[in-house]
Amino acid sequence: MELRQLRYFVAIADHGSLSRAALMLHIAQPALTQQLRQLEQELGVQLLHRTAQGVLSTDAGKVFYEHAQAILKQVADARSAVAQSAERPSGSVTLGLPQSISGALALPLLKASRAQYPEITLQLTEELTGNLSDQLKSGRVNLAVLFDDGQLSQFATSPLAEEELHFICHADAAQATAAPAEITLEQALQAALILPGLQHGVRPRIESVARTAGLNVGSVIEINSIAILKSALLADMGATILPSAPVLDELRRGALRARRIHSPAISRTVVLCSSRNIPPTNAAAAIGRLVRQVSEQLCAAGLWPGATPL
């Protein structure tokens, strides 16, 4: 198996066509087809379905595509690491951000990266936390912001902030107009809740704190998208337990209301993670330092609501 075969396969899968991939790669289509056939023979599986409209990945092809992408990225990172200067880091760095964090961190990080490291290409990817963890393991992202749930020992970690979770609902909901401005966890759990699935985001933390307090999380509407979850809140379909950052605009204009939770309060530890097995490039190390710096600045300026720097 050769690197060029991996590169060819990824290009074909990305373009959905042998002819378009051949044009992009500047290779004759018969030669490209031959390389693909040799790769499939070596693996002993069919990677692509040929159709009149183009090509589609088989189940085996979808699995191989993820590995091929990760391998090609690690090779590119290795080349970059050899060529980089510690004083002027350059190259490409991919940073994964959870959906509930990107609203607070993404734009400030991009601005700071362009100002301090103009020779680094910072690529941000927004994903569910469970997906980000898998991508960090495989090397598809260099760094990822995750939440410390006690399952991060496989990564090198650096704490960023402790983020408070609030009870958030439609501004006209009964829970929003009730006094006082705080609510107990038991009361919050009695509401019709809209939460991410068990493997993502705040849900494991909520379940853990509730269990420790002798409380149960009842039936919930599970939505693994911040955008759709916000739409459900605005439609007054229920309430949620989230940090304030992803719904800050809606809170400011009065469409949603947030109440602090007590007895007990709920917070989560936000950490920057990198692989223990893949050495960081100078560029990745520089972006890691920048993430910590920007996080601290946002907390100090009150621009990351409910977050305290660690």
From TrEMBL:
InterPro entries: LysR_HTH_N, LysR_subst-bd, WH-like_DNA-bd_sf, WH_DNA-bd_sf
Stretches of the chain forming a coiled coil according to its record: none
Keyword annotations of the record: Activator, DNA-binding, Transcription, Transcription regulation
Domain HTH lysR-type: 1-58
Domain of life: Bacteria
Pfam family of the protein (one): HTH_1
Family under the similarity heading: Belongs to the LysR transcriptional regulatory family.
Protein name, per record: LysR family transcriptional regulator
